[in-house]
Amino acid sequence: MNATKKYFLLAVLLGIGLFSQARSRAKNDTGYYTIGKQAMAINFKHLINYKRTETSFSDFKGKPVILDFWATWCQPCVAMLPKMVRIQKQFGNSLQIILVNQETEERAEAFFSRMQKISPIDLPCELKNTDLFKSFGVQSVPNYVWINKEGVICAVTDHEALTTENISSFIKNDKINIETKPNVAEQPYDYNLPLLSGNNGNVNILQYHSIITGYYSGQVTRYSTPMSKSRYKGRRVMACNCPVDLLYRIAYSSPERPYGFPSSRTIYQIKDTTVYKINPDWKDTTGLFCYELIVPESKATLIYEIMRQDLERYFGFYGTVISKPTKCYVLINRNAKRSEGGPQFEMSNYWIKMKNSPVSRVMDALEHYNQMDIFINETHLDHPIDLDIEGDLRDIEVLKKGFAKYGLELVEEQRPQDYLLLTDNPSTNGR
């Protein structure tokens, strides 16, 4: 998923790893494994679902391999895992899929244990391997690396390339006839520093700046809000390689909506549909922009207002917040008990496991995992609770039954809700 918390793909910021001289010969001058290079020097140190916990890539020589870089918190990654299992079963011994994860064994094994009840994942999985993420320059997940039976890296793709036709051709011809993703990590970047001047100049003298650029080659889509940790906490907004509509949705953030409006709560009255219809072709970067605003402390409370003015001046679109009756799912307290456990929060496409946490936390997360529906918290609970719900979180009946076990009721009602209206006509917005 090339995305922000809300949009997109959630990304991993990694640097260049240190490897042995033998390994470095298989990489390019930047220190990364790239297309056309040998992968035989790769070592696996923490394999599960395999006959050995440690082995080298040469153990798989003689058959094509697809490395699936993923994370338990990545919604698109998790959604793809059952498909990867089906692909492995379809092609059997003529292909090997290996999952690669850099999280702890405890977290990953807890994930697989829960998935066992829903859709078992029995593919070999390498855990805790940050070196492998670094050596392939992986900044965002999911990421798929295609390696032929001779151990040569042939392609790096997104999930759309994982078709029966492409895989069959790869197994038969050792080739894949699709363009590959760029190695986004080949340009190191410090996201705690200003977009341009901070990575190429003196940040200590910077007091105020506002900047819009086109696509920043070599970087993934991401953004940070004034709440994010940096030397400019409270007075900086940064968005890298974002579509125009996401910039506007960030600009209409507020204390009630700290991450802006999701696309499900945005109404578009704009003739140019490319502003908000994402092009699935990752090679088309014409609609992606970078924006950064740094203000002095005296202007910190005006940061989003200034951002909106910048966007209107440059892009010529206008936004306003409107209210309209909407079908919502309202959570009501019937007899929810106070938590007695230690703090814990885990959420995926298929479960919620929460201990000693406020109900508001799960309601916020639900709108991330289920962007088709709107959820409202009217429990009025002043104490933390426990939840353990399993099933497809897009299924309202699963949620209703799950909440009911803990003295909570999810009911459908019509409620006035705020929406962001984007137009290309200022008069529509009362201008």
TrEMBL record:
Keyword Signal: yes
InterPro entries listed in its UniProt record: AhpC/TSA (IPR000866), Thioredoxin-like_sf (IPR036249), Thioredoxin_domain (IPR013766), Thioredoxin_ResA/DsbE_sf (IPR050553)
Positions of the Thioredoxin domain: 33-176
Highest taxon of the lineage: Bacteria
One Pfam family hit: AhpC-TSA
Molecular-function GO terms, alphabetical: antioxidant activity; oxidoreductase activity
PROSITE patterns registered for this protein in UniProt: THIOREDOXIN_2 (PS51352)
Keyword Signal among record annotations: yes
Keywords: Signal
Endpoints of the signal sequence: 1-22
Protein name per its UniProtKB record: Redoxin domain-containing protein
